[in-house]
Specification:
binds 5'-O-[(R)-(carboxyoxy)(hydroxy)phosphoryl]adenosine, five-stranded mixed β-sheet, 19% strand, globular, alpha/beta, binds zinc ion, single chain
């Protein structure tokens, strides 16, 4: 079987266009990410149709820029990897159509990558690689997952959110408080001046067994407090932000502890946009295990993780047919091992 060296990665599952070139020898050669957050900020969340259109606008120039930054050209690529799910179907279709067609025109193989598998493998791109098996907590605007990574291609879903993702809860709570989008960093900033004990918000689903999450009730609890107050003073906002952050961090820690006990894993990897949260990181220090945080550009949506996951699968012999495949939903446990 031909060894695949150089892979172009294309990520378009949500509101970031991420492109990267990954090589077997040398690792990430270059990566570019264009975030659409300004486009969506006006709406307080991602508008799927606008996301698709913006990916169409950006994908081609961004691929060119990434190749230029790597000092290479399309002719040197041995394969193309694109996110084929899960995610926003229109946004996925843009990356899949572009990636599949590019691979066909270059006569190289293409591979559709599972977005979550790429997130789970991203820590292996860092110098302080976690040893297998490890537990990953993925917390972003679109996902909240606890997964046992046993091996590349072998994942056991331990728990997931039944409603809002953690980042989504931050964004919606920020909106209730009149703060900007994305809400996570805004809540964090406000929380610095607040009292985390001022309001006792629920720690959802911590008083019953299991590893699933639910954050919509927490958001409603905040809403009730906000609506019962006549004004939103800056101190009131700060106290709500701090108490909300505390509730989230304590909830996540309870579930992480349970996951580590259940799996006997020694390492926890925290990833996704919410991994930037300082209160959460401080709470993580209390865990009796190694806790790793990939650098933020590998934690959030990016093309490098797609290129890397694609590289692994292409070299294991996986190939895609000529059809363009995207799926909005895709169970990670259905993936086959390498
Ligand atoms: O992984 P990400 O950049 O994008 C996707 O969701 O795909 O995550 C974005 C999410 C947003 O919901 C944002 O509010 C949240 O991560 N976030 C934070 C912080 N920084 C970003 N949440 C809490 N604290 C932060 N410091
Ligand atoms: Zn993601």
């Amino acid at each position: 079987m031909t060894i695949i060296q150089s892979v172009l990665g294309i990520e378009t599952s949500c509101d970031e266009t991420g492109i990267a070139v990954y090589e077997g020898v040398g690792g990430i050669k270059s990566q570019c990410v264009y975030s659409q957050f300004e486009l969506h900020s006006h709406y307080g969340g991602v508008v799927p149709e606008l996301a698709s259109r913006d990916h169409i606008r950006k994908i081609s120039p961004l691929v060119q820029q990434t190749l230029d930054d790597a000092g290479t050209s399309v002719d040197s690529l041995d394969g193309v990897a694109y996110t084929s799910g899960p995610g926003l179907i229109g946004a996925l279709m843009v990356g899949a159509a572009f990636g599949r067609s590019l691979a066909w025109s270059l006569d190289v193989p293409a591979i559709g990558v599972h977005h979550m598998e790429a997130h789970l493998l991203a820590p292996l791109l860092t110098e302080s690689k976690p040893s297998l098996p490890f537990v990953a907590l993925l917390v972003s605007g679109g996902h909240t997952l606890l997964v046992l990574v046993e091996n590349i291609g072998s994942y056991h879903l331990l728990g997931q959110t039944l409603d809002d993702a953690v980042g989504e809860a931050f964004d919606k709570t920020a909106k209730l408080l009149g703060l900007d989008y994305p809400g996570g960093p805004e809540i964090s900033r406000a929380a610095e001046r607040g009292d985390p004990q001022k309001f006792s918000f629920p720690r959802p689903m911590t008083n019953r067994p299991g590893l699933d999450f639910s954050f919509s009730g927490l958001k409603t609890a905040v809403k009730n407090v906000v609506e019962s107050s006549s004004t939103l003073s800056s101190q009131f906002t700060a106290d709500i932000a701090a108490s909300f952050e505390q509730a989230i961090a304590e909830t996540l820690i309870v579930k992480c502890k349970r996951a580590l006990n259940q799996t006997k894993a020694q390492t926890l990897v925290l990833s996704g946009g919410v991994a930037a949260n300082r209160t959460l990181r401080n709470h993580m220090k209390r865990l009796d295990c190694q806790v790793l945080y990939p650098p933020m550009d590998l934690c959030t949506d990016n093309g490098a993780m797609i290129a890397f996951a694609g590289y692994q699968r292409l070299n294991a012999g996986y190939r895609e047919p000529l059809s363009i495949s995207s799926q909005a939903r895709w169970n990670i446990e259905s993936l086959k091992g390498l």
